[in-house]
Amino acid sequence: MTDVLPTLISRNPADPTDVLLRIPAPGAFAAVDTVERARAAQPGWLRAGAAARSAALGAIATAVEAAAGELAELAVREVGKPLSEARAEVARAAAIWRYYAQAPFQPTGEVHETSAGGGLLLTRRRPHGVAGLITPWNFPFAIPTWKAAPALAAGNTVVLKPAPEATACAQRLAEIVQEAVPEAVFTVLPGGATEGNALVSSADVVSFTGSTPVGQAVARAATARGIPAQAEMGGLNAALVLPDADMEQAADHIAAAIAGFAGQKCTATSRVIAVGAALDPLREALSEALRALPVGDPADPATACGPLIHEAARDKVVEACQGLTTLAGGTALDRPGWYGAPTLVEKVAPGHRLLREEVFGPVASLLAADDVAHAIRIANSVPYGLVTSVHTADLNTALNGLDQLDTGMIRLNAPSTGVDFHLPFGGTKASSHGPREQGRAGLEFYTSGRTYTVAPAGQGA
Q1: Is residue 5 pLDDT above 90, yes or no?
Q2: What is the pTM assigned to this prediction?
């Protein structure tokens, strides 16, 4: 008897009756077969040389730019990303492809003198083979791009397993990439946990972005196989606001970081720590800023906070706020789609789920700290350590007093969301496992170092 494979369904979160895609999951055997076809294609892709890889990535960047309007509209429809953010994400994806198009011409090693005698010592970085990429739905073009572009530039082939909720976006990206690269160099593997597990069990290097429990399982499985793995996981990010900060600017930045794309970013702000006298003015300014954020149809260019990805996500946010003192929001919105109001709560007891778990929605807790040292202790008290934003006019305090923050990224007088793709991305503790992503760090992750000793001919014992 043949097992019936589950069906993958992708719905518009702003209009759940709008089904973008309904396909059967391919299953584990098909996943492994996809990896084997990618492995067979990898030597030819590497031998094609730097110029061919550079030209291909440049062509992808140009094609993404040409299709920008279509891709942005697809992200709006499939994952509910507000149109302004979707446009920015597509532009960023094109820029990442173009950035890595120059990478094949960069040095891949060094030459050293031997310690004695003739000959040379060489170091060289070489691709791993097949890069298995497992990506989330919240950045359906940017995250697959910032993983795939360095992997391809370094000479690997790629198998991308997107989140089911972003399958249509991944398939459209694959159509663009496949126009520029040989067959089986870049393949999309739709599916869920079954296909993801099969990919981790058969690829040569694995990069994951998603939830912490799944990311930790991926890291364990890859480690057991002895293959390189990186996992970007959750965040419970804090914004520290000092009394000398520009309160209106800080409130605007923090409100955008709480509720932009309905808070569905690993870099979103979920804890706001007011230091000393900052508490009262920040409470008023931030509550007002959140209430003023446009919530509604993600296809409207004015919308900042659209729907959550599905009904369970919306319900999780509402349930997490029940029984708390609410300064703004705290409710589901009575309209079609899975909408929740941008929310700020206070007087949250230590140990509450909002201070332990990533709820992944437009909600944050307002907390009070006696001084900067106290604020840092609060910020560091959670299992995660991805990014912290700090709002102050005192650059000396920012530069000299905040190295104690246990996060991978610190943003001064800016939202916690938003990162530069040419610099390393990653966190500490349960937020990240393995090497950093993006920039030069991405290229290093998708290659392994080798040391060569070149002895002069005829030199023997």
Answers
A1: no
A2: 0.95
Long-range CB pairs of 322-328 (<8 Å, 24+ gap) are 324/348, 324/352, 324/354, 327/283, 327/286, 327/287, 327/366, 328/286, 328/287, 328/290, 328/291
- Interstrand relation of 7-12 and 15-24 (parallel, antiparallel or unpaired): antiparallel
Catalytic residue among 169, 266, 305, 321: 266
- The whole-number pLDDT of residue 460 equals 54
Residues 410 and 392: their CA atoms lie apart, in Å, by 13
Nearest to 288, CA basis, from 260, 256, 258, 251 = 251
Q: Rounded to an integer, what distance in angstroms lies between the CA atom of residue 297 and that of residue 451? A: 56
The span from the CA of 345 to the CA of 322, in Å, is 10
Which segments of 293-368 does DSSP mark as H helices, in order?
311-321
- The Cα–Cα gap between 41 and 194 comes to 24
For residue 333, the 8-state DSSP code is -
**Number of neighbours of residue 269 by Cβ within 10 angstroms:** 27
Predicted pLDDT of residue 381: 97
Catalytic: which of 78, 85, 232, 346?
232
Look up 305 and say whether it is catalytic.
no
Question: Considering all CA atoms of the chain, what is the largest pairwise distance in Å, rounded to the nearest integer?
Answer: 84
Cα separation of 310 and 149, whole Å? Answer: 30
Q: Can you tell me which residue has the tokens 């059967």?
A: 24
* Distance in Å from the first CA to the final CA of the chain: 66
Above 70 in pLDDT, residue 296? yes
Cβ-based neighbours of 1, under 8 Å, separated by 6 or more: none
Known catalytic membership, residue 266: yes
Q: Which of 188, 149, 157, 152 is nearest to 172 (CA)?
A: 188
CB-based contact 177:148 (threshold 8 Å):
yes
Indicate the burial class of 356 (C-beta count within 10 angstroms; 0-12, 13-18, 19 or more).
middle
Secondary structure (H, E, C), 41-88: HHHHHHHCCHHHHHHHHHHHHHHHHHCHHHHHHHHHHHHCCCHHHHHH
In this structure, what token pair is assigned to residue 195?
A: 């296909």
Residues 231 and 432 sit within 8 Å (Cβ to Cβ): yes
Amino acid at 420: D
What's the one-letter identity of residue 164? P
For residue 1, pLDDT over 50 is answered with no
Helix, strand or coil, per DSSP, at residue 454:
strand
424 touches 441 (CB < 8 A): yes
* Alpha-carbon distance values, 323 to 348, 351, 381 (Å): 10, 14, 23
